[in-house]
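Can anyone check this?
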Amino acid sequence: MSDPQLHRVTLANGLRVLLAPDRTAPVVCVSVHYDVGFRSEPEGRTGFAHLFEHLMFQGSESLEKLAHFRHVQGSGGVFNGSTHPDYTDYFQVAPSAALERMLFLEADRMRAPKLTEENLRNQVDVVKEEIRLNVLNRPYGGFPWITLPPVLYSTFANAHNGYGDFSDLEQASLQDCATFFDTFYAPGNAVLTVAGDFVLAEAIDLVGKHFGDVPARPVPVRPSFAEPFPQGELRGEYIDAHATLPGVAVGYRLPDPSTDLDSYLNYVVLTALLTDGDSSRLQRRMTQDEELVVEVGARCGLLGSALDARDPDTLTVTAIHPSTVDVSRVLGALDEELHRLASDGPDTDELARVEARWAAALYSEHDRLMSRTLALGAAELLFGRAELISELPRRIAGVSEEDVVTAAKALRPDSRAVLVLNAGGDQ
């Protein structure tokens, strides 16, 4: 993957436009990132950002319900959307000849989605069924991205269930929807990204044609969601009625990536040293040598992706272990490996291997136009620098043994949250 040549335009209504031409294949991706996610939901409306993502597919000013689907699929394309802690994204990938159609579709719903009582009630039911399928009726559902934050964090914005509680979803009203749209779905609160096979000047003209007359609205001031770091170990536990083996999730706070990116990336490397590949430290010790767990993973970001949120962000370590192994042994092994890294650091070959694997995985992921477009749009929205995506391999390669030592020293038992999952299913 070559570094994308990025071009920026800002429309009179405030919409930021990022263009990344790539003429290597006759395909184009259009995405829109809105600066609103779980953390922007009002109290009493858990899951509302995700519910609204569903509503944005239910018709718009010029299109009836399901027309968006037909237009994209009829062009040979694919589409989707997703909700994150700090943003909601929508995208289409289609043959390059369909670029104008994709721009029209996104502009039409940015201008006015079709918010009706019928659509609202229908999508509340869809989201509830999604929660049943992915959380309530699934072993380890929501573990740990839903279940760990209430232990680690204390404010509603950071601690609440982003998927939503049924009672909150059922009480959502059309007025709630209209207010949410007016507040957060203004063009000045969004980034439009166009990547792939197009002529730059033509794409800029098409963007202006379809988005230029979307009315400007005030852009909300994003509040700070900062919280103090834990001053001791925080503990919680719950019973998963469907899980057949117990588990544990450990959460640590990460540095603010918008002000201290290099320190944040030190933890990205640290998590890879712990669990990336069969030769990683926790995989080798916990699953192979001592057979303490059946699976273990470490990652930056509650949803599994680094740099997917602003501050505060979370490093998680999760493990599923046999019922014959006490959770204290799992935590003890984790603490010992962190202490070894803090004392001795990684060896040169180990660090080089991890950094090479990480860079290779990133290049592979961003070789796909959809992944690259979404990454560019998210980085532009969250950090104001889509160029960051191309810089990451170099910056990761610059993480030193001393940087890993410093990061490992900060992951102490007295500054973390521990969530114990007790298995309630048939053993």
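Reply from J.R.: I decoded it. The longest helix spans residues 117-136.
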